[in-house]
Automatic annotation (TrEMBL):
This protein's name: ABC transporter ATP-binding protein
Cellular location(s): Cell membrane
GO CC terms of this entry: ATP-binding cassette (ABC) transporter complex
InterPro entries to which the protein is assigned, alphabetical: AAA+_ATPase, ABC_transporter-like_ATP-bd, ABC_transporter-like_CS, ABC_transpr_CbiO/EcfA_su, ECF_ABC_transporter_ATP-bd, P-loop_NTPase
Annotated family: Belongs to the ABC transporter superfamily.
Residue stretches making up the ABC transporter domain: 2-233
Task performed by this protein: Probably part of an ABC transporter complex. Responsible for energy coupling to the transport system.
Origin species: Thermococcus eurythermalis
Keyword check for Disulfide bond: no
Length: 259
């Protein structure tokens, strides 16, 4: 489990996290909130990229202040927004192999991990392509594969579907679902409320560096979201009109109105 305990953080003299606590277990936790509310800053605390000015973060009991990013990255993989800036190898294979090689694994083990990670994100057969030649959705999946090859227990995904077309978004969503099924804990940063509805088990809402909500996805969508500048998914507006209770999909609505 990852435990964030009363974390404060300042850039220069400006405090942008003001006492945030949360836990992440084997689940999809959506981290939402307006621009500038501190989501990315908080997420960077999970693998030690940032260390709290006050409070602490424990990753399976390891205090992030006492461990390097390299050590913590074995447990917590971080997929950045706009991952194309991350790629520097000539081929997809080498790109994914980079992390496991640095772990000092044998060539056979590295190869096994690369094949597994590329398969997991549906990029088997792309090994010899240049990362730059991939489409936006393929780049996003390559970034996830690079992190998966390190076999981290937890993953932070920062806006993983932003800018993707429908088909590319669907394949990234399927990857995220399969990661949860494999028992990973996932922190998903997103502004997309449809994605939250589809994927999240739990939601944490930040505003002005403070946590203003932490609970099951159903309770989150019962909030007055407009107050936080967030829009309720249409599926839920329709479910409310039809008085069928909380649903995640149109199919569920149909089943409830026509039993
Ligand atoms: N490197 C930095 N130096 C100084 N201030 C920063 C830095 N990074 C972020 N900030 C500030 O910290 C606050 C929180 O930023 P952060 O990126 O964590 O918010 P966010 O919720 O992820 O926003 P968004 O939804 O726009 O991605 C913002 O006011 C931002 O301007």
């Amino acid at each position: 489990m990852i435990t964030v305990e009363d974390v404060h953080f300042s850039y220069g003299g400006r405090e942008v996290l003001r006492g945030v606590s949360l836990t992440l277990d084997q689940e999809i936790l959506a981290l939402v909130g307006p621009n500038g509310s501190g989501k990315t800053t908080l997420a960077k605390h999970l693998n030690g990229l940032l260390k709290p000015t006050r409070g602490r973060v424990l990753v399976d009991g390891m205090d992030t202040r006492e461990h390097t990013v390299a050590e913590l990255s074995r447990k917590v993989g971080y997929v950045f927004q706009n991952p194309e800036h991350m790629f520097f190898e000539e081929t997809v294979f080498k790109e994914v192999a980079f992390g496991p090689k640095n772990l000092g694994l044998s060539e056979a083990e590295v190869e096994e991990r690369v094949r597994w990670a590329l398969g997991a994100v549906g990029l088997g057969g792309f090994e010899e392509r240049t990362p730059y030649s991939l489409s936006g959705g393929e780049k996003q999946r390559l970034a996830i594969a690079c992190v998966l090859a390190m076999r981290p227990k937890y993953l932070v995904l920062d806006e993983p579907t932003t800018g993707l077309d429908w088909k590319a978004e669907r394949s990234v969503v399927e990857v995220i679902k399969s990661l949860r099924e494999r028992g990973h804990g996932i922190l998903l940063i997103t502004h997309d409320m449809d994605l939250v509805l589809e994927l999240a088990d739990r939601v944490v809402l930040l505003r002005g560096g403070r946590k203003v909500f932490d609970g099951p996805v159903e309770d989150f969508f019962a909030l007055n979201l407009e107050e936080y500048g967030l829009e309720k998914p249409e599926v839920l507006l329709l479910a409310e009109r039809l008085n069928v209770g909380f649903v995640r999909t149109v199919d569920e609505i149909v089943r409830r109105v026509r039993p």
